[in-house]
Amino acid sequence: MLTASGLSRSFGPRTLFTDASLQLGPGRRIALVGGNGTGKTTLIETIVGLQDADTGEVHRPRDLRIGYLPQELPTETGRSVFEQVMLGAGPVTELAHQVEALGIRIGETSGAEQEQALADFGEAQSRFEQIGGYAVESDAHRILSGLGFDPADHGRPMDEMSGGWRMRVALARLLLSAPDLLIMDEPTNHLDVDSVAWLEQHLAAWSGGLLFVSHDRDFIDAVANRVMELAGGRLTEYVGGFADFVVAREEKLVLQQAMAAQQSRQVAHTERFIERFRYKATKSRQVQSRIKSLEKLDRVVVDRPNVPASRFGFPKPRRSSRLVAELEGVTAGYDDCDGVEPEIVLRNVTFDIERGRTVALVGPNGAGKTTLVRLLTGEMAPLTGRVTRGTNVDMSHFDQLQAEILDDRRTVLEEFKTVSGIGTDGRNLRTYLASFGFRGDAVDRRVGDLSGGEQTRLALAKTLAVPVNLLILDEPTNHLDLPSCDVLEDALEAYPGTVVLITHDRHLIRSVADVLVEVRDGRAVWHEGVPDRILYPTRPDAAPAPTVHKAGTRPAERAGSAAKKQKKGKPKDPDQGIRRRLQRAERDWEAAEAGVLEVQDRLADPDLYQDPDRAATVVAEHEAAKDAAARLMAEWERLSTRLGG
Prior knowledge:
Layout lengths: L1 E10 L2 E11 L4 E5 L6 H9 L6 E5 L6 E4 L11 H6 L4 H18 L2 H20 L2 H14 L16 H15 L3 E5 L7 H12 L4 E5 L3 H7 L2 E6 L2 E6 L2 H36 L6 H13 L26 E12 L8 E12 L3 E5 L6 H9 L6 E6 L5 E4 L13 H5 L9 H9 L17 H13 L5 E5 L7 H13 L3 E5 L3 H7 L2 E6 L2 E6 L3 H4 L25 H4 L11 H28 L8 H32 L2
Parallel strand pairs: 3-7, 3-8, 5-6, 6-7, 12-16, 12-17, 14-15, 15-16
Antiparallel strand pairs: 1-2, 1-4, 8-9, 10-11, 10-13, 17-18
Helix pairs in contact: 3-4, 5-6, 5-20, 9-10, 19-20
């Protein structure tokens, strides 16, 4: 078990935390919460050993294996995605490379050298099997599929992966390594709803120790059995998930307020006694006694919630037409202009967005959510079909890179003043920024000195300050703390216009959205309301919700031959086709695994290596059988995820 006691850390005059203590061990799954800039990342880097505390100590047992996922990763190149993940397997990966190199050597040599290579291969292959090497490879493919990687991406070079996908690779590598203690800083950033749901299930069954920073209430509730809050420089532990934490913190606050009020009354009574009898010689001993008792009094401190903002009013936009945006028969994709067929991302998308709706786009990363946003903003044109925006539609777009284009040299107030048309009244601007947590001197801090969450908060403040009637927000909660997410939620609930939202924060979706558009497999399906089966695709109790089609969707999707098959009022199972494919994939996968085992038995036969040519052939068969089994396993995982089980 890792223990930390009496940790304190300051930067100049600013104290992040004092006397922080915690224990991390098997079965303790702790969510670390707190406002942006309170020192959560500094605390976990101190626990990991990347920073030193000013005071206190961290005891890490010598044989304790710690796995750490930071918010920012160094660039990794020169390997494929699968090879990078397999680095987490340690000795298994080294032995796998040895087996592969010996297999190549067998084919390139002859005579005594080949015989020696065959003998070495047999020994290495046997050790690889004994330490569960083949199971590790299957686990690596399974974890990659759970985190949203298509089977075809497992072999792609790391050089081709974006920052978000690199973070997923690092997470997969970490999970495969199965450390004794897993520490993660915002692990759900860059994940889609499907991957977050998969990660929840994986971590809820984690037997080792777990400490993670997250702003996702649903994720905390599903994974954590303890919550630690870093606020006011103090670290406080609560038992239970996020809902239990909220209740316990409120009860603690009420108790502290009552104790503080009682103490204030006692102090006031003592001070009146001192003031009344200060100059009476007969009472001097009692007065001095009471003065000393006040000096030694341990004052009750009320842990006031660290709420960085209050509700605020939007600048009133002009009224748009009833129909804000309409997509009719849209097919979209990307053309490389080399005469090659364009890569189709979305096919035959038809729906319309009416004034005042809040539409959440959900689905796997890479399925086309961002493409759909680019169609709505006009950044790209459809290959076929029509995209129409209504009249008097004024739009503001926040994307994931918005915080990266802030000027590090400006102060918060100077950067905010770059928003066109917001005016120059410093008092009003400061009041507005205070609603996003920038109070008092905070508006004079340099942008470069802000944390990632504070920069995101400033970028959001700039986006929401513009009086528009259509807001398009792409992952606005990344790096935001829980109080800031509350601010955003309040802002969107109060917003009088139309919202198109991409986010993995399911609490935010449930709170503000009235429509889900599920983007998956080249389609964009409109769902009225917020069906649990879409938000929680792997949850067994998420009952299917009927899909309500907007006016203008293709009649062929609602009628035709499918309707004829619904006999005696029995509804058609919408997942029937996937179930059949899943059963087929499972049979094929089992057959392929049996084939791998059969070839392994042949490799284990010492007589095989008496015939070098035959042994080389069997080695090649083994590699082909493993590849086939891995592909079928990945296909089974993909279909299982789609089915929600």
